[in-house]
Amino acid sequence: MSTPDDAERLSPLAQRWPRACKFLLSGCAATVAELATFPLDLTKTRLQIQGEAALARLGDGATESAPYRGMVRTALGIVQEEGFLKLWQGVTPAIYRHIVYSGGRMVTYEHLREVVFGKSEDKHYPLWKSVIGGMMAGVVGQFLANPTDLVKVQMQMEGKRKLEGKPLRFRGVHHAFAKILAEGGIRGLWAGWVPNIQRAALVNMGDLTTYDTVKHYLVLNTPLEDNIVTHGLSSLCSGLVASILGTPADVIKSRIMNQPRDKQGRGLLYKSSTDCLIQAVQGEGFLSLYKGFLPSWLRMTPWSLVFWLTYEKIREMSGVSPF
């Protein structure tokens, strides 16, 4: 005769450790999406950092020796000058980052939706709750993942430094972590965390909130069922909204995380995210906040599509209920 303990041991992992299972599944889906779209992220970062007015005032004359002109020319320039595989430079910390970031944000959002806020009796989840849940999930996930995001951004710029005749800063991912930790301490690993979580809150308000809202609207109010068509339409909408909301904060984040620092880990160009915002607008104009928008959107949309389709499918295969 089986006991409750025996039944628990025989139950599926998704039922025994639901949050851990969802964390791992979202990390797997994010890894697939990151590998497929990473070259667009590299292109976006290079476009966002070029032409910094603050860097020119610092006296770095090499910055604009070979400026990038548009997404396609940037990508082609990287291939021609650095090599095809350099389009994936920094992908390892990016995967580390997304395992932590996506796992943290997905688990947090579902916990808030199912436990803290709760759905109504007709399974409707109010938009205002979804907005708050999406922003809070982004903050939690990004704060946990900030060290890996910092390494990813700085490693993405190594190829550009080599072309400008500057010495490379890192030999690899683990050396980058060790060097940042040695120069700036634990605090240095969270450099740029304020604009980072600001961006994550906006992006997840666009991504999680839009996907969840559009998907359940389609399921509850149209003939569409909870299937790949609904998932695809919802993810396309979420990618567009996330790009529009997140690009300005992404520009600020990239510049703060890539700026040179003193021995105490303090930035030499910007005092804060607000200072970076003001300098960018005054020195380069408002549209500088949307530098890299096209590759950001072109990356965010397929990333969102690949992530959500993969995530929903592996949840189904693992016996976990749909998102």
TrEMBL record:
<keyword id="KW-0813">Transport</keyword>
<comment type="function">
    <text>Facilitates proton transport across the inner mitochondrial membrane and may dissipate excessive proton gradient associated with oxidative and metabolic stress at neuronal synapses. Regulates glutamate-induced proton conductance in astrocytes, shifting the energy metabolism toward aerobic glycolysis and lactate transfer to neurons for ATP synthesis. Can transport chloride ions with lower efficiency. The transport mechanism remains to be elucidated.</text>
</comment>
<keyword id="KW-1133">Transmembrane helix</keyword>
<feature type="repeat" description="Solcar">
    <location>
        <begin position="125"/>
        <end position="217"/>
    </location>
</feature>
<keyword id="KW-0812">Transmembrane</keyword>
<dbReference type="GO" id="GO:0005743">
    <property type="term" value="C:mitochondrial inner membrane"/>
</dbReference>
<feature type="repeat" description="Solcar">
    <location>
        <begin position="226"/>
        <end position="317"/>
    </location>
</feature>
<dbReference type="GO" id="GO:0042803">
    <property type="term" value="F:protein homodimerization activity"/>
</dbReference>
<dbReference type="GO" id="GO:0043524">
    <property type="term" value="P:negative regulation of neuron apoptotic process"/>
</dbReference>
<dbReference type="InterPro" id="IPR023395">
    <property type="entry name" value="MCP_dom_sf"/>
</dbReference>
<dbReference type="InterPro" id="IPR050391">
    <property type="entry name" value="Mito_Metabolite_Transporter"/>
</dbReference>
<dbReference type="GO" id="GO:0015108">
    <property type="term" value="F:chloride transmembrane transporter activity"/>
</dbReference>
<dbReference type="InterPro" id="IPR018108">
    <property type="entry name" value="MCP_transmembrane"/>
</dbReference>
<dbReference type="GO" id="GO:0015078">
    <property type="term" value="F:proton transmembrane transporter activity"/>
</dbReference>
<keyword id="KW-0472">Membrane</keyword>
<keyword id="KW-0999">Mitochondrion inner membrane</keyword>
<keyword id="KW-0496">Mitochondrion</keyword>
<protein>
    <recommendedName>
        <fullName>Mitochondrial uncoupling protein 4</fullName>
    </recommendedName>
</protein>
<comment type="similarity">
    <text>Belongs to the mitochondrial carrier (TC 2.A.29) family.</text>
</comment>
<comment type="subunit">
    <text>Homotetramer.</text>
</comment>
<feature type="repeat" description="Solcar">
    <location>
        <begin position="21"/>
        <end position="115"/>
    </location>
</feature>
<keyword id="KW-0677">Repeat</keyword>
<dbReference type="Pfam" id="PF00153">
    <property type="entry name" value="Mito_carr"/>
</dbReference>
